[in-house]
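Reminder to self: tokens first, then the designed residues, so the page reads top to bottom the way the pipeline ran.
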């Protein structure tokens, strides 16, 4: 990673934590929809405590030559870009709109430059390990489930005007719509492509799977935290737990652990 890209990525991490800190300290910056405010504040808590510091640690690891350092930088950048897309596109006009626009743009630029420096071929030893087929299967199942669920919801809306149900969060129709769009245009194709390439044991399958699973796992944590924020704020209709989430989070955790675990050393001869 060049010094310029490294500095840009550090700037993204710091700016993301500043934006998250502002959102947590001044919830009114996100407008009057209390459900949306608490959802975004839940995201902010995870950004401030986990994602921002994790990005800084990954940058340092890459600087010291860690084998997966650059890929982890890209993964945390992907998380921040996806997360702040909700702030930018799902909350309407807010006092932090300009900051979020600059942050998302800068994050995508940093992600592009970081990915351009990822060399996939040295990851072949990891992809050749039988364990990578487990995350491939999980990603394949998730892509089919997400795609089928939202396709059914979109068809139902076209037939009888029923707006698809979102998650267990209290969400406006605009946020549900944004979630559907992001899932169908980003997550479903990313998960499906990573699953196919992993199954074929191609090095870029490992790269795409990391970009899917590392951010995806933390997104599940953000979802749980946002449920707690809405419940603590007594948002009407809020629940503190999604009964399906433990299973989904476990799938992400197992798949991510299988993907990133260190491959066994090859025996000589």
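Designed residues (269 positions):
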């Amino acid at each position: 990673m060049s010094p310029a890209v490294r500095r840009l990525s550090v700037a993204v991490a710091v700016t993301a934590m500043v934006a998250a800190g502002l959102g947590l300290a001044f919830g009114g910056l996100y407008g009057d929809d209390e459900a949306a405010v608490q959802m975004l504040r839940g995201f902010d808590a995870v950004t401030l405590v986990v994602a921002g510091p994790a990005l800084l640690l990954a940058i340092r690891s890459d600087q010291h030559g860690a084998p997966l350092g650059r890929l982890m930088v890209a993964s945390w950048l992907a998380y921040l870009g996806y997360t702040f897309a909700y702030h930018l596109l799902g909350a309407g006009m807010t006092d932090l709109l300009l900051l979020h626009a600059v942050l998302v743009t800068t994050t995508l630029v940093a992600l592009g430059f970081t990915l351009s420096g990822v060399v996939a071929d040295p990851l072949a030893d990891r992809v050749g390990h039988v364990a990578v087929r487990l995350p491939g299967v999980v990603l394949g199942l998730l892509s089919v489930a997400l795609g089928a669920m939202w396709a059914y919801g979109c068809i139902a809306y076209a037939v009888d005007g029923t707006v698809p149900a979102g998650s267990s969060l209290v969400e406006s129709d605009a946020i549900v719509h944004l979630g559907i769009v992001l899932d169908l245009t980003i997550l479903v194709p990313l998960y499906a492509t990573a699953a196919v390439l992993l199954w074929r044991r191609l090095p870029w399958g490992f790269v795409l799977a990391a970009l899917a699973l590392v951010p995806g796992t933390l997104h599940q944590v953000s979802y749980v935290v946002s449920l707690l924020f809405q419940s603590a704020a007594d948002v009407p209709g809020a629940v503190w737990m999604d009964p399906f989430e433990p299973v989904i989070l476990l799938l992400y955790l197992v798949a991510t652990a299988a993907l990133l675990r260190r491959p066994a050393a090859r025996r000589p001869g």
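The first helix runs from residue 3 to 25.
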